[in-house]
Amino acid sequence: MKIAVLRERADGETRVAATPETVTKLIGLGAEVAIEAGAGELARFPDADYQKAGASVGSAAAAIKGADIVLTVRRPAAAGLAGAATGALVIGAMDPYGNEGEIAALAKAGVTAVAMEFMPRITRAQVMDILSSQANLAGYQAVIDAAGAFDRAMPMMMTAAGTVRPAKVFVMGAGVAGLQAIATAKRLGAVVTATDVRAAAGEQVESLGAKFIMTDALKDASGSGGYARELTKDEQAAQAELVAGHIAKQDIVITTALIPGRPAPKLVSKAMVESMAPGSVLVDLAAERGGNIELTQPGKTITTANGATIIGFTNVAGRLATSASQLYSRNLVSFLETLIDKKEKVLAVNWDDELVKATVLTRDGAIVHPNIKFEAAPAVAKPAAAKAAEPAKTGATSKAAAPKKAAAPKAEAAPAAAAAKTAAVAKAVGGKVKKAAPIVAPVAKTAVPKKAEAKTAAPKAAAKPAAKPAAAKPSTAKGKK
Length: 481
Ligand code: NAD
Known about the structure:
The chain has 15 helices and 19 strands. The chain is an alpha/beta fold. The strands form five sheets. The chain has a seven-stranded mixed sheet with strand order 11-10-9-12-13-15-14, with helices on one face. Strand 12, helix 9 and strand 13 (281-284) form a beta-alpha-beta unit. The site of nicotinamide-adenine-dinucleotide has 33 residues, from helix 5 and helix 6.
């Protein structure tokens, strides 16, 4: 059983899918681990440390040759997987919505693509939840980025020269990232308020010592699975009224609001930003899905005419490459433990396991996930082979609600036998092949950098290297799940 880990190809991606620590664990599971040279470099894991842990380190071709499992952070291009064993499991954040053509190319390449972001949010799978592990870090980093761009101190300081008042921080969206942002801002000494549309979030916000703000007009907009539903027009207006009055008095705003399968809700208008004092800082963690702030430019940091800074990084977890890789790679090992027969030390996938059914996108040459539809393309469309040779597209989460047209005829990607399997799997998970409703958060929220980000003029905090050593800190939001 060979496991390959390649260097990430996506622009701006700093993370790696295995660390020396997880290599040791993988070897303990009976695997032979092959790492592409330099794979961990940006996350501060040198090749020598992988070798010490027992991995072989070499070229991409050597690593991939005969691999039964390929671990990645982002979806690799199908062409980059040539040489892997037939049916090899390719496990990572696949970002399938809007990228169905790339998923079809993976199917055609004969690999089994597994989307970690589709992991069900059930107790058993918490340890495999990449959305949570990465969002937790992103919430922390958002506050650090805000503090770095802020021209004043965060805590109250009583000095001989007088008192510095604490910064006022407002967090919008109190899910995993938002709760960690609240905890981090509190630790820095800010006065923190937060809002969410789920009433249950109120108690969690208050348990962190922040004040929860919610309009009476909005009793509770909880949707299914603990996620928020989209607000009605009236609810949106009531929320905007509440936010407008509050935001004008804030120094820092961190937005994290997302709704599964929808573009990020616009919560902060241009007028609201203009109501803030010069030097105010806004960090939009929803930037990769279009942003919660009207003025956000995904991948960029901008300064508005009234002197507010809006930070729109799109791979925020990647700014903590070491910590993010450590947690991400542990999530992968936890999942792999369920796919491997520990006694026999061989791959033994239970295709009926709910975790497997929820995450496997392609199998035996076909797309098998009920939520991923690959439409037949007109005759003039680019052939699938050409598509497969293209690099993996990333940074397209804002396209999530508008899947693009497929580039290859359906039959090419899904032979008849495989299509029958698609229907069988769809049935097994209670969905329909063509119109199944999403069963999990359908967007890789934590794993999509934009090309622009690398070129962006960074705020003060961004002057540091993209990857820096991890800082130990409690995972406050975790206990709230
Ligand atoms: P998310 O990333 O989908 O959204 C972030 C937050 O934005 C959510 O709290 C959401 O309610 C909020 N939001 C949406 N629209 C908003 C609006 N208009 N205004 C203000 N806020 C808005 O959420 P998440 O961080 O993935 O967490 C979603 C839920 O899943 C939470 O209840 C969380 O506790 C739960 N969760 C469960 C597990 C588990 O394994 N059981 C793991 C992680 C998260």
